[in-house]
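FORM 12-B: Structure-to-Sequence Request
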């Protein structure tokens, strides 16, 4: 009988160890699930942070470009405003050259020098003249003052320029006043 007692406790110990192993496996499984959940939460947080960072970087790049464009447009606006005050002088010099054909050659030469200086100054400031006879009429650039019939020019071409147009880049400083062919 003594032998039976010794084997009975071993069976009881084996039966008691089985739930412990199952509990350890369940605990390990729960820890793995918790770790996977934690990893997925951290990956989601990283993705959200990366998205925020990329949006912030894009916003900054847009801000940088916008301010650079604003600086350029401010320069163009200031230049256009200053040149607007000089345009009557340029018109007067051009009219003087047109009307002084019979004048002293020295006077004509002096006025031509002044005209050339104005043109060079406008070039340095990137001011362009436009509106010449024979050019195509564009209502965005030209102000049609009158219409004329002509056999020499095609329809919708400029026949005569009364006032030269000026622009800086795409910004119109002054529209050209022109006569257009019907």
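FORM 12-B RESPONSE
SEQUENCE OUT:
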């Amino acid at each position: 009988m003594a032998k039976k007692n010794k084997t009975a406790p071993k069976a009881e110990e084996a039966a008691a160890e089985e739930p412990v192993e199952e509990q350890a496996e369940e605990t390990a499984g729960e820890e793995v699930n918790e770790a996977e959940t934690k990893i997925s939460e951290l990956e989601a947080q990283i993705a959200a942070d990366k998205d925020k960072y990329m949006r912030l970087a894009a916003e900054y790049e847009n801000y940088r470009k916008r301010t650079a464009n604003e600086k350029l447009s401010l320069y163009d606006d200031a230049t256009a405003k200053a040149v607007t005050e000089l345009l009557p002088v340029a018109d007067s010099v051009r009219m003087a050259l047109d009307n002084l054909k019979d004048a002293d050659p020295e006077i004509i030469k002096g006025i031509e020098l002044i005209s050339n200086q104005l043109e060079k100054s406008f070039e340095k400031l990137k001011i362009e003249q436009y509106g010449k006879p024979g050019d195509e009429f564009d209502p965005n650039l030209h102000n049609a003052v009158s219409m004329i019939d002509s056999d020499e020019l095609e329809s919708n071409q400029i026949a005569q320029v009364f006032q030269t147009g000026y622009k800086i880049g795409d910004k119109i400083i002054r529209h050209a006043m022109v006569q257009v062919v019907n």
